[in-house]
């Protein structure tokens, strides 16, 4: 998806046909293309319809990226060809900012206000971070960093997912302004070189490299490929090359008419014949892109149709329509607790989006746009602007509106910190065990009826203490560095740092989540706990399963080296997990785990193996937020799974560890699945923070149960 209205005024700027110029010297000029207003409108309409009713990419985003390159860079280069052009980049930057930012800020501000007031399930730090990234035109990289694949509309999808394309467009605008400034500077000293001559080889090389990268990167990481500015550049670059050279292509009227008809068919049929989210911006994206190129080259009845008044109106509101429709779709789907938007909700979203788009266009976009012509060399507009500000009421109103935009933007920027502070406050609050006994209720402890705690929407943003302190390696961290080595020795030491008895916690996030009860037990029973843990990285000597990353294997080399060096009194980790990577959802002992146990046995190091907790996985493969499910449904039946959906009949690690000295398998299944039902709430405490990790509150309630097994290996 891409900014549509952002093209409108750029299109009008500098596209009026002037006197004929030498085709070998100047960037060609063309008359205003009303049909491309209509193309913008109908493409946005298909984007909205496909989002609401189909759940697929329509190809409209690719068409608009092409048009962005065609119009924006074309206008910049036409200005660069003027002998009196100014090298000051402020004016095009400011003009573009005034055209795009006010509407974007309003949509982001209203959306975040609605989310914070009425939609708890969307009150996630990652969504707030995406709002800030959208504000600063970096949303595509934020989504790529979060590993977010492009998803169809649902209650779990980000309401700002669609703004990745705005970020790509904004980044390209900066490139276009910079390129035009360089060309202006060159032409100061070498006026015989036209902008067309200087820009063409640069664009041709960058566009070719970008297209090749998009084709290759599809097979490397399609998620990053979809969002990357570098792999998307070819769509904009091709549009820019088209602006430079298309007017030189001479075709008959009949040929133009045929091209336009074929092109429109290609643009509108894209979403019906391919899934762009899985393949774009690779070679399949050529289909809608070339379709749009044919419309630009074409003419005839299709152009007349696209130039009709109602089509141009649709193009006029296209940018705010694009901004509004997706947040409304996601927020209403979440508010009404629908898994996917219903037909009637979709219709309501379209009607509401069109109405808000019309209001936004009339009362925000148009009043805030820059009206003056672009200044030329050595022309200053500052004095004139200040004079207008003192004497012109419209200018004063625009200034007040600008301040309001800044204030709303600052509010949006502060939203991640607000949500983060809420998480910190929640983690600093202890639950009363007499009301919220959690796992203690499994031992027969009585408790009153109460709403479960903590807030399940806050839980989704929480992590365990070692992770929260930075004492856990995460994706992107140097695998040759153990997290505790970054700090003073005691910073990542839990339990009693003064004790000589050492317990090491090793493994991935499913091991790290046990740090809270181990910390408490260490303080109570005089031992220290040191975590050597890394995200998605169980501990092994050798990866015999072939499913773990190279970084994980390297990290484990240093973990094993450290364990051999210190020979701790006890090592704690998981003893089972499901091998979802191989399509197996029942817990088992991966072959790689046994290589760790062989090493520990050879080194005479005791080991406590904790059976993994259930993984709640949706049919799509995504984690199921079971705590939020119960908060919304209040139904254990609808938000639980049976024990045999995850657990093998007998603990798979029991026999293997029982055969080794000083090793013990702890079957935790009864802690999570009482009466053979794996439930989201036990003892008034939410068990899970997401679909497969314990809440820290429930983990803490397991402290005495962990100690019942652990003390045997510590000789207590």
TrEMBL record:
InterPro entries recorded: Acyl_transf_3_dom (IPR002656), Acyltransferase_3 (IPR050879), SGNH (IPR043968)
Keyword Ribonucleoprotein belongs to the record: no
Q: Which keywords belong to this entry?
A: Acyltransferase, Membrane, Transferase, Transmembrane, Transmembrane helix
- One Pfam family this chain carries? SGNH
Region annotated Disordered, chain positions: 1-26
Q: Name one GO biological process term.
A: lipopolysaccharide biosynthetic process
Q: Which residues form the SGNH domain?
A: 487-706
**What terms describe the molecular function in GO for this protein?**
acyltransferase activity, transferring groups other than amino-acyl groups
> What is the recorded name of this protein?
Acyltransferase
